[in-house]
Amino acid sequence: MSKRLAYLFLLVALFGNLSLTKAQEIAVLQYGGGGDWYSNPTAVPNLVRFCNQEIGTVMKDRISSVKPGSIDLFNYPMLHMTGHGNVYFSDEEAENLRAYLLSGGFLHIDDNYGMDPYLRKELVKIFPDKELRELPASHPIFSVHFKFPEGLPKIHEHDSGRPQAFGIFENDRLLILYTFEADIGDGWENPEIHNDPPAVRLKALQMGANIVKFAFNQ
What we know:
Helix content: 25-40%
Mean pLDDT: 90
């Protein structure tokens, strides 16, 4: 273990778990590499309002962004990450994210179309000994509140691929959820942005609420 990583785990022991157990907030991950981490600006605020109304969370809809190398990660039990393009984590950022996730944090990554080939190689930096595993439709995240018996819903059509949810686990705990070929974040946005029918937006918001509830309960 590097000195920096040992220091991070010391900080987690002193402050991280305390913050994660008391907080009920989501932040957007401001990653480097040139990808548009800031895409879907209305998505998470709309999801937060839906969760407050439908599943009893008490979150502020003024969403903060946080960089992967910042100690501020540990103020948030859940991070959301999206975009269309390149993703890059430095070694120090990957160490910080690893410490955050192993201390109880949760990262949801939603491919907004085009992120996949860049993301996968960066996830190896965070967990070189772990692989993405596809979640079956029977996984609790699909039924923790709203029921999705077929698994992840399809919100936007890009390459006509089936929607897939992948995870990285530590024992049985889900650390990272990666939603692919679903683009559920687009469904959280204001209705005039993508002109999704109300039923499609509702499915996206309900699946998002399941993710939030699962992450917070975990």
